[in-house]
Amino acid sequence: MADLQEPLVRGKRKKSLVDYLVQFRWIFVIFFVLPVSSLIYLNIYIGDMWSAIKSEKKRQKEHEENVQKVVKRLKQRNPKKDGLVCTARKPWIAVGMRNVDYKRARHFEVDLSAFRNILEIDADRMVAKVEPLVNMGQISRATCPMNLSLAVVAELDDLTVGGLINGYGIEGSSHIYGLFSDTVVALEIVLADGRVVRATKDNEHSDLFYGVPWSQGTLGFLVSAEIKLIPVKEYMRLTYTPVKGSLKDIAQGYADSFAPRDGDPSKVPDFIEGMVYTQTEGVMMTGVYASKEEAKKKGNTINSVGWWFKPWFYQHAQTALDKGEFVEYIPTRQYYHRHTRCLYWEGKLILPFGDQFWFRYLFGWLMPPKVSLLKATQGEAIRNYYHDNHVIQDMLVPLYKVGEALEFVHREMEVYPLWLCPHRLYKLPVKTMVYPEPGFELHQRQGDTSYAQMFTDVGVYYTPAFIFRGEEFNGVEAVRRLEQWLIENHSYQPQYAVTELNEKDFWRMFDASHYELCRQKYGAVGTFMSVYYKSKKGRKTEKEVQEAEAAMLEPAYAEEA
């Protein structure tokens, strides 16, 4: 599209009262959000510890009882007068920034709040069986002392297993293991009619197994999952490598850091992520698991980045631009959650002085503020302000198009830093909602294999430079242009983010065929809302609710881009 290539002429932006409310919101965060967040974290920790001291048999018994409560609740629903089924979780509790507007319409709630236990860690099978509200901090706390870990551990502590399976989850090991949902061994699902089924990739419910990822819980209620474990060591040997040049030079340096052109597997790191700080500068970080004995050898640097007083991780990594490449050892669990304390770099907007030495030492132990609490207390005006003047989006693009994606973001949004994290997108037995480019294996591009195409998450999280310069910025139009770019380049947008897609374009981005077959086969139509309905921006009208409840399966939009 030619208009995407032309730089926009931007006028001066007029400030409103909401600008000042946002600018000084840190006062409310300091005196209310942080103290209350710390109490919430303490309460969650105590709950996790109480769960951990229960016997495995008792946890399993409680799980079975809670599953039966869900079954009973579903059978109480009267389709003629009750709304579509969804969880009883409050709209603001979700970590994502998308407005959970579907819960503002008539709906039938099912309480899943009890499903937050680790049911089993089986070191022989190398599988962890967990409930959907188990979060990343909870499970890494249990597995790391055993020198075990999930194959993919999303960076933020609060991200839950259910959200990462039903939606989208990634980490610096995804270039080896794929997305979080690719590491799942089995799913326990409560269907619309109350049946409880176990779905694996090779049993009679394999279609459901492949249909659940990206479905946003619209095929049934996930009540437990068995997830792959891998052996790990006590430390991560992390190498920080600066890359300078054009955005396409940075993209190539990023690809070379984990996908050697000669295909030598010994050169592939255990972990990789990149951060692009400006139009001409980035830092690539490659990690390899290391033993405690190696880390403590004379001359090696150990950096415990998890301590509250430590510099924020993205700022620490940025020092490589001045001092050049360097290596250090980070305790493995602290490395996994390196972005939690500063919420990547969003913490700088929430608390402008939060990265300062004095604040980190005195109050850093209170960080981070609970994202759900920030959302619950922001009000409609501030919420709309962030949607119009702030960007939180992920672009999942083929590796060979990362340079073009970076140029697009710079031109349309000018947001820095940017996060880069690769992941395999597997060629599966069925065509799921997200899938590799047809015929990708014929091109033998860098990072690709015969069974998976290498993609990259380009994370765009921050206020555009246009806003800082006092220039006009239309957040709605910027997101629309981003979404069209993604559609035209066989790329994807995770559904946690704010979307402007209409239904036709939504199904141009995602493939509906297998998802709709599962909806029909497992009775989800007219009981659970569709994934587009759930993702759609804006409040649902009564007419939309009624149409969704009475919906019969129709061919979803599937036009070629």
UniProtKB/TrEMBL annotation:
Q: Which Pfam families match?
A: FAD_binding_4
Q: Which domain of life is it from?
A: Eukaryota
Q: Which GO terms describe its biological process?
A: steroid metabolic process
Location relative to the cell: Membrane
- Keyword flag Oxidoreductase: yes
Q: Which GO terms describe its molecular function?
A: Delta24-sterol reductase activity; FAD binding
InterPro entries recorded: Diminuto-like, FAD-bd_PCMH, FAD-bd_PCMH-like_sf, FAD-bd_PCMH_sub2, Oxid_FAD_bind_N
For this protein, what is the EC number?
Answer: 1.3.1.72
The chain positions of domain FAD-binding PCMH-type read 45-232
Under the heading SUPFAM superfamilies, the entry gives: FAD-binding/transporter-associated domain-like (SSF56176)
Keywords of the record, alphabetical order, are: Membrane, Oxidoreductase, Transmembrane, Transmembrane helix
Q: What is its main location?
A: membrane
Q: How does it sit in the membrane?
A: Single-pass membrane protein
Q: What name does UniProt use for this protein?
A: Delta(24)-sterol reductase
Which stretches are transmembrane? 24-46
Gene Ontology cellular component terms for the protein in this record? cytoplasm; membrane
Q: What class of enzyme is it?
A: oxidoreductase
Name the source organism.
Lolium multiflorum
